[in-house]
Specification:
233 residues; alpha+beta; Pseudouridine synthase; 2 domains; ten-stranded mixed beta sheet; 17% helix
Length: 233
């Protein structure tokens, strides 16, 4: 028996999708060389077969994660992801109140772990829509007695590494809980207020065009996303 059972969202002859928990690596990484617990290994043990990861979610991100069940599907769906033929929607909690909707069109360096200077800049586009605003009764900036946050629906049209996190930093509304691109004071304050410490980014749905129509796979956000007090729009 596998050491941990992952929740399956979809299973057919070619694809399997899981609801990845926050804090779980997708596959072994040099950045987490000490970490041997990965979604890839757990799911291979759970299904008893070889699998191919089709895309990446950061360790701290939860939500829909897809794997191919054979080499042909891995090639075909891997190309679909590379060419932007897979629609992905995320939910994010960000600092401040961004515009009600907008598009971030900012080219990004290929590797966010390295200095940007000298790296090629890749076209990167993210759409967003504000779902709710919150004003919570704790200060982070001494000039204000409260702190403002917003719940966002995010659609990346390209698939650069850390794209959503880097783009929201670019517009001065970084994701809460982002230790790399966010603000430590806000991360700590929100973790204390909500009683949850995590990267507030969730892959809510993936849509793929198949021979029989559009396949939409959804992972509803967990109970920690039901923020209190009630949102102020």
């Amino acid at each position: 028996m596998p050491e941990e059972i992952l929740r399956l969202l979809h299973l057919d002859a070619n694809l399997v999708a899981i609801d990845k928990p926050a804090g779980l690596l997708v596959h072994p990484s040099g950045l987490d060389a000490h970490e041997h617990r990965t979604a890839l290994k757990l799911l291979r043990d759970q299904l008893g077969e070889w699998l191919w990861p089709l895309h990446r979610l950061d360790k701290g991100t939860s939500g829909v994660l897809l794997f191919a069940r054979n080499a042909t599907a891995a090639r075909e769906w891997g190309l679909a992801f590379e060419e932007g033929r897979v629609a992905k929607r995320y939910r994010a909690l960000v600092r401040g109140w961004p515009d009600a909707e907008g598009t971030i069109d900012q080219a990004l360096a290929r590797d966010p772990e390295l200095p940007s200077e000298g790296q090629p800049r890749l076209p990167s586009v993210t759409h967003y829509r504000r779902l709710a605003t919150f004003e919570w009764p704790f200060p982070v900036d001494a000039r204000h007695p409260t702190s403002r946050y917003a719940l966002m629906e995010v659609e990346p049209l390209t698939g650069r590494r850390h794209q959503i996190r880097r783009h929201f930093k670019h517009i001065a509304h970084p994701l809460v809980g982002d230790a790399t691109h966010g603000k430590g004071a806000h991360n700590r304050a929100v973790a204390e207020w909500l009683g949850v410490q995590r990267l507030w980014l969730h892959a809510e749905s993936v849509e793929l065009a198949t021979a029989s129509g559009v396949l939409r796979i959804v992972a509803e956000p967990g109970p920690e996303w039901r923020f209190s007090p009630a949102p102020r729009s």
